[in-house]
Amino acid sequence: MDPLPPRLHRDVVSFVRRSTRMNESQVRSWTRHHDEFVVTVPRAELSTSIAADARVDWASEFGRSAPLIVEIGSGGGDSLVPMAAGRPGSDVVAFEVFEPAVASALGRIARDGATNVRLVVADGAQGLATLFDDGAVSELWTFFADPWHKKRHHKRRLVGRDFADVVVNKLAPGGLWRLATDWEDYALWMREHLDGAPLLENIHGGWAPRLAERPVTKYEAKGLAAGRTVYDLTYRRRDAPQD
C-alpha cells in the first residue's frame, strides 16, 4: 500500500487576523466583485480554517484547464494582480485572511482585467494542503511572510520543514517555489530549512536574483527605505527517485 501523503499539522497559524472593518471603496469592491473572484470553502472550527473534506474543482472555477499558481499572503494584491496579469496562460489562486486587503485586491483585479485570479479568505498553508491535488501546482509564491522575530514565536513561521513537505507534495515535478523576505534572520532560516529538503533544489545554489516580474510594493519599499536587504529564493521540485 502506498504511504499516505504528508499533511500539515499546525496548532498555530502564521498570521494575525486583523480588523475586518473596510473603508467605503473596499466595501464597494467587495460587493461588486466578491461573487466573481472569491471562492468560498467549507470552514472548520476557526473562521480562517478549512474543513478537512473541502474540495475545489479549479478547472470549473476558472472555466478552463491551465497551469495553477498559488500565492499565500496576497495582501492587497500589489504584486498578485500585475504578476497574474503578466501570466494570462496560467490561473492564480491567492490566499489572504485579511478581508479589507482582499477587497482592495478585488478592486485591482477589476481595474486591471486580471480575470485569471481567484481569492480564498482562509489560511493559505492549510488551503494548499487541502484544496489542491498532489502535483497540481506549477508555482508557489510566498513573498514577505510575517517573520515572527521573537524566538518563542518561531513556531508560527510559515516556512519550515513540515510546510516544505506539503509544498513538495503539491508542486508538479519541475514546479517552482518562489520566496522573498526583507529580514535576514528569516532568510537564513529559510535556507536552513529548505536547502536540505530531499526533493527541493535551490536552483541558484544560494540567493536568487530578484524576480523581474515582481513589482516593488509599498511594503517592500518601506523596508528598503529602512536599509533592509531583500532576499529572494527559488526552489525547484525534483523528480522523486525511482524504486
Automatic annotation (TrEMBL):
The keyword Transferase applies. It comes from the Bacteria. Substrate binds at residues 150, 182, 217-220. Its EC number is 2.1.1.33. CDD domains: AdoMet_MTases. Signal peptide: none annotated. Belongs to the class I-like SAM-binding methyltransferase superfamily. TrmB family. This is tRNA (guanine-N(7)-)-methyltransferase. GO terms for molecular function: tRNA (guanine(46)-N7)-methyltransferase activity. It catalyses: guanosine(46) in tRNA + S-adenosyl-L-methionine = N(7)-methylguanosine(46) in tRNA + S-adenosyl-L-homocysteine. InterPro entries: SAM-dependent_MTases_sf, tRNA_(Gua-N-7)_MeTrfase_Trmb, tRNA_methyltr_TrmB_bact. It is an enzyme of class 2 (transferase). Catalyzes the formation of N(7)-methylguanine at position 46 (m7G46) in tRNA. Keywords: Methyltransferase, S-adenosyl-L-methionine, Transferase, tRNA processing. One of its GO terms (cellular component) is tRNA methyltransferase complex. The gene is trmB. S-adenosyl-L-methionine binds at residues 71, 96, 123, 146. Pathway: tRNA modification; N(7)-methylguanine-tRNA biosynthesis. The keyword Transferase applies.
